[in-house]
């Protein structure tokens, strides 16, 4: 049986922590869909189309990974995709509290879909897209924290104050 899984998120921008989880998730599941939430209320730095492009560039060599977008409830999208698992990354205790609540709500909404938690590699455990955008906006060097294609776009998008 091939287990299909989703790795949902905003990925604004994709980080090396995300890439680590995608690579490891691809080894665990028969197919992994990186599912980009279209949530304009979060005031994203990159458009959904740009995030799709960046993620497709970094995952193109992983045969069982695809990139898609969704609106609305993740469990509804998971059902449409035929996914029976959701992959979520947990960096810290604060992530766990939020993710645990989300997993319980998702279980209530879709008991047939399991949530699988993975910790990112230690060298990426402190990275968040929000923090990277802030550091880059003040001219800080985020080399090695995002894939090279993302770094190029990030540098082109943010400017020093």
Kindly summarize this structure in a few lines.
It contains six helices and five strands, in the order E-H-E-H-E-H-E-H-E-H-H.
Account of the protein in words:
The protein has 161 residues and is an alpha/beta fold. It has one domain: Rossmann fold. The chain is 43% helix and 18% strand. It has six helices and five strands. It has a five-stranded parallel beta sheet, sandwiched between helices. The mean pLDDT is 92.
Question: Which descriptors would you attach to this protein?
Answer:
161 residues, single chain, globular, Rossmann fold, alpha/beta, 6 helices, 5-stranded parallel β-sheet
Level-1 CATH class name: Alpha Beta
Q: Which topology does CATH recognise? A: Rossmann fold
Overall tally of structural domains: 1
Tell me about the largest β-sheet: 5 strands, parallel
CATH architectural type: 3-Layer(aba) Sandwich
**Helix share bin:** 40-55%
User: What is the β-strand count?
Assistant: 5
Compute the CA-based radius of gyration: 15 Å
Averaged pLDDT: 92
**SSE pattern:** EHEHEHEHEHH
Order of strands side by side in the largest beta sheet? Answer: 3-2-1-4-5
Low-confidence parts: none
Strand coverage percent: 15-25%
Distance between the termini: 53 Å
Number of helical segments with 4 or more residues: 6
């Amino acid at each position: 049986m091939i287990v299909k899984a989703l790795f949902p998120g905003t990925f604004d921008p994709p980080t090396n922590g995300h890439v680590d989880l995608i690579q490891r998730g691809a080894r665990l599941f028969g197919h992994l869909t990186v599912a980009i939430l279209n949530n304009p209320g979060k005031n994203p730095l990159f458009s959904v189309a740009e995030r799709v492009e960046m993620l497709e560039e970094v995952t193109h060599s992983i045969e069982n990974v695809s990139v898609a977008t969704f609106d609305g409830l993740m469990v509804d999208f998971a059902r449409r995709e035929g996914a029976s698992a959701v992959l979520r990354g947990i960096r810290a205790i604060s992530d766990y509290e939020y993710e645990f609540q989300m997993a319980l709500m998702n279980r209530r909404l879709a008991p047939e879909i399991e949530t699988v938690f993975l910790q990112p590699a230690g060298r990426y455990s402190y990275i968040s897209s929000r923090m990277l955008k802030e550091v880059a906006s003040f001219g800080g060097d985020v080399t090695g924290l995002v894939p090279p294609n993302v770094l190029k776009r990030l540098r082109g998008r943010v400017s020093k104050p």
